[in-house]
Design goal:
With about 150 residues, this protein is of the alpha+beta class. The chain starts with a helix and ends with a helix. The protein is globular. It has four helices and six strands.
């Protein structure tokens, strides 16, 4: 049976927004690599295998019971799918958030073998661009464009 990218992405969105753990895991390989879009490491939080993914998602759905991902656009072929979304939710005891991001899905035999999520970060007020929404480019010199503060922070 040929890969149907549209049906795959529709199913993906349905099980995630339904918080359907069995449906989510059914779409993944047993050895799936799952990287959340947040965490202390550069890749976010990484969990491997269906049991670890189930535990991670149970906790997430418990902490953010109304979390959802509304698709903006997608691309899918037999080896790779990318789903861009707007996620919203309200963590228990927290404030509602709204953030754009995407999932990059490596596929093997029609199942997700790796799910890597990325999302837009929100800058602190002091870091917001100035003058017309554009940041001024640093002057390039011997420092390669990095300020002394950035160079010394390494």
């Amino acid at each position: 049976m040929a890969f149907d990218g549209e049906a795959f992405v529709t199913r993906f969105n349905t099980v995630w927004n339904g918080h359907d753990l069995d449906g989510i895991l059914h779409m993944m390989t047993d050895d799936v690599v799952f990287e959340a879009s947040f965490g202390k490491d550069p890749w976010g939080v990484r969990v491997v295998g269906q049991a670890a993914v189930r535990e991670f998602l149970e906790d997430m759905f418990r902490r953010i019971p109304d979390v959802r991902w509304d698709e903006i656009r997608h691309f899918a072929c037999p080896e790779l799918a990318v789903v861009e979304w707007l996620t919203t939710g309200t963590p228990r005891g927290g404030t509602r958030y709204e953030v754009q991001g995407c999932d990059v899905l490596a596929l093997r035999d029609g199942k997700i073998s790796a799910k890597r999520s990325y999302r837009k970060g929100q800058l602190q007020q002091a870091q917001q661009p100035t003058s017309g929404g554009r940041r001024r480019s640093p002057r390039r010199g011997r420092s390669g464009g990095r300020s002394a503060a950035v160079r010394s922070a390494r």
